[in-house]
Amino acid sequence: MNILDDILHEVSRPARYSGGEWNSIIKDWQATPIRIALAFPDVYEVGMSNLALPILYKILNDQPDILAERVYAPWLDMETQLKQHNIPLFSLETKHSLKDFDIIGFSLGYELTYTNVLNMLDLAEIPLLSHQRKDSHPLIIAGGSCAFNPEPMADFIDLFVIGDAEEAILKILEVFRACKSNKERMLRQAAKLPGIYVPSLYEVAHHKDGTFDSITPKVPEAKLPVERQIIDKLPQPVTSPVVPHIKVVHDRGAVEIQRGCSRGCRFCQAGMIYRPVRELPEQQVIESVAQLISNCGYNEVSLVSLSTGDYHNISELIGQLSRKYYHDNLTLSLPSLRLDTSSIELIESLPHRRKTTLTFAPEAGTERLRQVINKHIPEEAMLDTFTAAFEKGWLNLKLYFMVGLPTETIEDVKGIVDLVTKTCQLGKKIRNKPPRLRISVATFVPKPHTPCQWLGQDTEEQLTPKHELLKQGFHRTGVHLSWQDTKTSQLEAALSRGDRRLGKVIHKAWELGSRFDAWQECFNYDNWLHAFKECKLDPAFYANRERPKDEVLPWQHIDIGVKSAFLKKEYQHMQQGKETPDCRHGHCNACGLQQQHPDCQQKFKPNVKLV
């Protein structure tokens, strides 16, 4: 029976499940001893834009005894078809059931995909709880930014990879080859590896008031703390990635030119957990772009990093690429640019750039609050940037802000309206017509391993008047305002700062029908309230409660390299509105990484060639 013939005509966007894309890799199933499914717990269009999976896909398939295939979360209509036809969830490349694989690896980048993980396991007919799985079941592993607080998903994942996975995954496979038939022995041996956390080998305890007490190894192989893995050099970019059949979120080639960010925005988890900064040499970037165009036919390539404008010689790099592809109609995309006039100059230097939309993230409406979060951009500098953009003919701007930031007052919220109003007036003055502004307002979520990890999130009662002020302030201005649902933000905060007890909540929410919680049309807050209540837990305890600095945190056993003492010092600087300068352009801020990388200031500093 052909699975596709029976069900694909019944679902929307059947190309999500058909496979057979250009550059996909199909190996001999019978002749390959180890089979790995790389799973992304969201739809194909989102997962195919993820940069981690192509890297692992290539690394694994480069091993002669390993095949790696892909699987994404089936949309609701496809889930219905799989259940009606009694078909287990299958991979794209060979359409084998996930339960036939040896290892399933999940990329966890967003907390609101947790129920999708459970749903994918269930659709694959694999027991959800790790202690229920036998040696014959696939090993379930996970990595990504959410793995830096692995506790909420600890009941479901056999082992977590903490940090960069490029080298760690190969070390895991060495253990797997030696212990494939004995899961318990394999997990204990894997726990010895740097950066590997096996939740079942640890016991957790809580105080009577519900706060976290301790985590204790149950076997000698389990160690504390679990240290994040850091690769010194960026890997060669994947230049023959799988080319999707349909339009995806980021429908272009991508070259990771830099990993990590040293600017130190205090709300930003990525800026902490991906330190130190590592750059791909210019020549490798240029060669990778050439190979991407040749192998995939892309005419747009994105130069990816957390702060692309901070690449040590970005202007010269753009110049070389522009000259090289002047006649090839290549479009270069530069995400995450700084809010200053140099960014406008850089964008203007791009080849064949259409005047579409420029995106910037002021984050806060007042200089005071931007200094609090260590994103100190004077208002004058921002208005100069917008002036330069309007003078060059860029009339479409998208600006990202947050509400609920630490020490925020109602004056700071009004500051968003004032800044946007001034921007509108500037555009009208320069171009004789109002610019088209799209304002996106997110809710601040305090994240683990940041100086904000001890803070409580604003409640819905605190956030609602702030949203109302913004709506009234932008009324009849022609500005398009969108904002994040407060209930979604509270759930994200609760899951991101949760402990192991939340596994029962996630399981119950899934049983009640929750999946695709990140999608507004699917999110059901009542399911989650019911799940928390049945488990005798309160989402406000995790999301909205401010935590004392001496409270033991559920993720404290994960050592990201940035030390708690540094985060506490940054917390004090945040309360004082004191700026911490970028260490790449000044003295070392003693975040803790220099203990692992004694020469990190030189080795990873701009304009210094990597050794």
Overall description:
- There is one protein chain.
- With 611 residues, the chain is α/β, with parallel strands linked by helices.
- Among the domains are: 3-227, Cobalamin-binding domain (Rossmann fold), CATH 3.40.50.280; 360-501 and 537-580, Transcription Regulator spoIIAA (2-Layer Sandwich).
- Helices cover 35% and strands 14% of the residues.
- The strands form 6 sheets. It has a 6-stranded mixed β-sheet with strand order 2-1-3-4-5-6, with helices on one face.
- Strand 7 and strand 8 form a beta hairpin.
- Residues 602-611 have low confidence and may be disordered.
Give a nutshell description of this structure.
With 611 residues, the chain is an alpha/beta fold. 35% of the residues lie in helices and 14% in strands.
Question: Which helices and strands, and how do they pair?
Answer:
Elements: H1 3-7, H2 15-18, E1 34-40, H3 44-47, H4 52-61, E2 66-72, H5 76-84, E3 103-107, H6 114-123, E4 139-143, E5 159-161, H7 165-179, H8 183-190, E6 196-197, E7 202-206, E8 212-217, E9 226-227, E10 253-256, E11 258-259, H9 269-273, E12 278-279, H10 282-296, E13 300-304, H11 314-324, E14 331-333, H12 341-348, E15 358-363, H13 367-372, H14 379-391, E16 396-403, H15 410-431, E17 436-443, H16 460-473, E18 480-483, H17 486-496, H18 502-511, H19 525-534, H20 539-543, E19 558-559, H21 564-576, H22 593-596, H23 600-603
Parallel strand pairs: 1-2, 1-3, 3-4, 4-5, 9-19, 10-13, 13-14, 15-16, 16-17, 17-18
Antiparallel strand pairs: 5-6, 7-8, 11-12
Helix pairs in contact: 4-7, 6-18, 7-8, 12-14, 14-15, 15-16, 18-19
